[in-house]
Amino acid sequence: MTEVAIVGVGLHPFGRYGDKLCLQMGAEAAKAALTDAGTEWSRVQSAFVGSYEVSNPDAVVGWLGLTGVPVRGVFNGCATGGTSLQMAVQAIHQGEADVAMAIGMDKHPRGAFAADPSVVGLPDWYGQTGMFLTTHFFGTKINRYMHEHGISAESLARIAAKNLGNGAINPQAWRRKAVSVEEILAAEVVNYPLTRYMYCGPDEGAAALVLCRGDLAREFTSAPVFVRAAELRSRRYGAFEVQSPSLPLESAPSPTVDASRSAYEAAGVGPEDIDVAQLQDTDAGSELIHMAENGFCADGEQEKWIAEGATEIGGRLPINTDGGLIANGEPIGASGLRQVYEIVLQLQGRAGERQVPNDPSIGYTHLYGVPGAAAVSILSR
Amino acid sequence: MPNPTQQVVADGLFTWPSSEPSLIGSEQDGVLSFPARPGEREVLLARRGTLWGFTTQQFRPPSPPYDGDDTPETFQPYALGYVELPGQLLVQARFTEPDPDRLRIGQEMELRIIPYTTRPDGTEILTYAFAPAEGDPS
Under an 8 A CB cutoff, do B57 and A136 touch? Predict the structure, then answer.
């Protein structure tokens, strides 16, 4: 199959930008990616543009240029960025384009996501009685996991402290203040046992990638990053999923497990080969569970890994080196492409103060969320 | 007799009025669902089960859709999670006990019908919740 390379990456840093238009942020990220690739929009033959808040994110072409190429809007919950990446890769595989773009943008209001339960096919009472929220799912899942696998609240706090610490040395992060493990544990509880600092928040921002056929990559950059796998999975019957008024007694693995296995198989590598990873950290508990669901350790081994600092920059497997969702927030259309942006910088040795040592060559990204969807990519030099 | 100042949040969610109410699920091809799906055979769910997992809701949910008569200032946190009904399924529910230190995974839980809000005309709106079962050693 045709190899696909990422030859340019761009980011509109995540945060809060007042009246600034979401599409403007998307256009700035796209132009930054094109500049990074040393090329222009006119060279792009196909684009996939993800957003939740912008109903027609493909309107970004109004800022980039009306060239008539196929441009498609993408929305797939928290896995939107991974879906845009996967679709751009497929467009190149299928021959629709030699050069394609994946662009993501969002601009969320403050606070927990609010919607009518009917948008996901749930009855009104589920919302009226205070159950139609995503955050308590994460509290329930990690509380049960801690009970089953002997995980301490301190490990959750250490993950949050790591990500906020990485954010503090990332000039593009939203939250740039390190917070101590003690302060994180003592902060107000949002959903037991998760405290305020252990959660990401919705915000604004954009990210973009330029991809091309592998044999063309050196026209754009001396350091292409190849997409070895870009896999997407939805939930199976029995998976413990957000917004489930009931679940069967027999359980199935999370879609993360399925997407991850499929990605390792496609890439021909295993978890032990990964040098740097970005895992969905909606909350600190999610990052911890995702370490096992993505095959990096067995259930319960996180306690030891985290105590040893194995997931810190300089550790055995640095995770969320740019601060992850906890330090960057989650504009959901863009979040997965921010993960790829960071891995590309790490593999190219361009990550500045947060650069992972020893010349990392294989990176990993993972998204998970509503509506029970997971996306995994494996990238290498 | 039903209390005239009380109303259920949704019809068909649990048997009511009743001195021993049950949640109403449904079954088709051996697969149980809650809430009941239209067109499927109705199944009354067990009134007792074990606590599978829990968390707390410490902030007032976005409103709408939440329609509690509280405000962000008067909101009283509650606990919620899943109860495993033996041989049936896991049901997501609010719990009557809001203190996570007084809940324990594996403990016996029992169905209750509780008012969760009051309308301006004084009508109490009833929903289902689970309470630590009486006589449970924990």
Answer: yes
